[in-house]
Amino acid sequence: MNRSNAMELDDMKAAWQALNQRLETQATLNLQMFKEGKLDRMKRGLRPLVWGQSIQIVIGALIALCGGGFWPEHLHEPDLLIAGVIVHLAGISMIALGALMQVLIARIDYSSPVLAIQRQLAQLRKVYVYGGLAVGLPWWLLWMPFLMVVLGYAGVDLYRHAPSVIWFGSAVGVAGLLATWGFMRWAGRRPRLAERLEDHAAGGSIRKAQAALDEIAQFEHE
Amino acid sequence: MQLASMGMTMGTARDRFQALLAQHEKIVFKVAAMYCRNAEDRRDLAQEICVQAWRSFGSYDEARSFSTWMYRIALNVAISFARSAGHRTRHVVPLDEDAHEIADDSATLHEPDERVRALHAFIDQLDALNRALMLLYLEDRSYREIAEVLGITETNVATKINRLKQRIRSGISETQE
Description:
heterodimer, A: mainly alpha, 10 helices, 81% helix, elongated, B: mainly alpha, Rna Polymerase Sigma Factor, Chain: A, 77% helix, globular
């Protein structure tokens, strides 16, 4: 140690100023690009999440229409009635989750205080991931009532003609759900694997969102 | 009063935004420098900050400080940027890129180069939120403005800055001993 602490703090500020003076020349040129009217075009590139949710709402609406238009015509055929209602509810759930995400995204105001927005973003990420799981995972089983409805429109009652498809499909679906759940738990306990899967696997995303929330809580209370 | 409620046309709002951005563009550069070592990352982050600022500009209240508003947006975008997996690798690797740029420029800058290295070494130890605090501290922002930007109390700001100073001292001691 050669210098006093007070001097070192000043040194740090001086270093910061020196560093920023050098960066400004370079960055001024970069900002010029925005002044040439390219902001609006770039704005659209930042909305993949909104687009994804919009697509989910459209698909959900098609599925809801498919189920909703089917079951009232089969009130006296329990298997087709149940299949139609399930498909109808699945479509409504997709619409509801998509709309919920759209509302949460629209509520994010980046000009709000940092801690509030970072917490909101981490929570949004969790809702997004859990919502994705809630919409996606049931399709291990939902494909059967969906198939029943599609074939039902063609006048075929799948359950009456080939009940084994339903029973076999149910067994595969339950096994698939259990395997997915087991994989997520297994991956969540392996940080390296979870990190590699981070962009693709829900377990990693949830862990990341939770880590951000933990960091915010620690920052607030430390 | 918010710009959106003032009936500003899109063209007028864009002109106003560009004027304000030009006056406060240093905030963008400084936040980008705090969160990114790599020049390409800095450019990407500066771009994202400007785009997000423009998107939020309709709700900007002219009666309030633009710098506080800009710091909030810039830091929120930067923290999200730093946390995104796509940028993490580039974000952490080239630790001394800027220091080399400075060292290459002039031999007389040897002393500032050491300081920059020490600064980078310290900043790299901080999590995203403490980097925000460190930036505002280095920029000599008032405790009140720091509290407004981060969304914590002024007392909390004072406590955290004291801890940050202690960490700076111990951090510099470690690097110089």
